[in-house]
Design a protein that fits this description.
Order of helices and strands: HHHH
Largest sheet: none
Low-confidence stretches: none
Radius of gyration: 18 Å
Helix content: 55-70%
Mean pLDDT: 78
Number of helices: 4
Structural class: mainly alpha
Length: 79
């Protein structure tokens, strides 16, 4: 679990964390409940490395998995 939280930070994951911190600062400044909720959702997504819709969105594969996934690809000519 800690490997998931600490490793594999992509630009999208870092962006979610930055936006969560901005929403948190806005919530503290204005006391707006929506800002707290948005900060919580985006913060959990960033920390746990989950996408927008649970299993419907996928996070990028590590480099070693991408290479092995492409090894078995076969192409055939259509026409």
């Amino acid at each position: 679990m800690t490997g998931t939280m600490l490793g594999g930070w992509s630009w999208a994951r870092a962006l979610r964390l930055v936006i969560a911190l901005l929403f948190l600062a806005a919530g503290i400044g204005s006391g707006d409940t929506f800002a707290y909720v948005a900060a919580g959702i985006l913060g959990v997504q960033a920390v746990l490395n989950v996408g927008c819709c649970g299993t419907h969105c996928s996070s990028p594969l590590p480099a070693r998995d991408r290479e092995s996934a492409l090894d078995g690809t076969e192409y055939e000519e259509v026409g």
